[in-house]
Fold this sequence. Notes:
Layout lengths: L4 H10 L6 E5 L13 E2 L1 E5 L2 E5 L3 E4 L8 E5 L7 E6 L11 E4 L3 E3 L4
Antiparallel strand pairs: 1-2, 1-6, 3-4, 4-9, 5-8, 6-7
Amino acid sequence: MPLNTAGINAALEDGNEAVVYVAIGSGQTSGDQTSAARVQLTSTVAAGVITATGVPYAYTGTPGAGATNALFFSAASGGTFYGYDALTGDATFNAAGEYNLTALTITGSST
């Protein structure tokens, strides 16, 4: 997963206490957010793997809008952009403007 330096530092410095918000986006930058809001990630961390708990996370957006990436931020609004993770499965919001993120696992490594 392409976490940027800010995201890696937050995870390393704060460990399980790092607060991360997840949005849905049509691309890989903070400006690509297509969900109306961000959801606070609740997770478990073990052996360098972050696994979302409390899923599914429900989002609203424009019907048919792109939903190809999970975007990570430090705050519910504004804040620092931490990076993204490509999603598999449905790639758009449904006809009612809904999208459910049903699973999210973040794995990283560094040298």
